[in-house]
Amino acid sequence: MQSEWLSRALEESRARGFLGPSDLNPHIEHSHGFANVWEGRSPAPPQRFLDLGSGGGLPGLVLLERWSSDGVLLDSMERRTSFLEEALRWEGAPRGGLVVTQRAEIAARQAGLEGEFDLLTVRSFGPPARVVECGSRFLRIGGILIVSEPPGPEQGSARWNTEVLARLGLELDQYVRETFGYQVIVKVRETPEEFPRSSTSMKKRPLF
């Protein structure tokens, strides 16, 4: 059962156009799916997680309420992050949430964010090459990236280039299918200093 605070936050996010106009319940179930994947690997919540491209607050707001962990909601759009900051000030909001307004490739090199996270969640950020290049530097060694996979035949390992992942210090792990699909990627070594590159370089010369 979700709190009044979470219901209010998600309804307001939808009203402001940050979430689609459809029923919120599938979005909430999808967000809990990230937690289910984590909890299938670890009995304890992550000490610190980052929601990459948090947008209207999914799955970040749901995970903050479920775990009461320290969580960073990262997005480059100030209009969205202003709303998230507002929602985290409302009565009943979980503690430990921090909103950061910044492009991911820049934030990944900032003190307090670089190499700091047990978990990185990605719901809707961009193509796989951009996800792993932007996300790899945020994770500590042993941390995991959980990416929501789209429906259709090209799922799991079919979307990911294992050689490129290895260059970034990452390794493809399990694909989990519940109502929704999730790909797990593990950070196994340090990410080379050259990554992530600038947004322009990633767009012109994607790694795969």
Number of strands: 7
Query: Taking strands numbered 1, 2, ... along the chain, how are they ordered across the largest sheet?
Result: 3-2-1-4-5-7-6
CATH architecture title = 3-Layer(aba) Sandwich
Mean of residue pLDDT? 95
Summing up helix and strand content along with how strands pair, one would put the structural category as alpha/beta
Distance between the termini: 41 Å
What is the CATH level 1 assignment? Alpha Beta
Radius of gyration: 16 Å
Helix share bin: 25-40%
Number of domains: 1
Mind telling me the CATH superfamily name? Answer: Vaccinia Virus protein VP39
Q: Beta-strand level of the residues, as a percent range? A: 15-25%
Largest β sheet strand count, sense and barrel closure: 7 strands, mixed
According to CATH, what is the topology?
Rossmann fold
How large is the count of helical segments? 8
The ordered H/E elements are: HHEHEHEHEHEHEEH
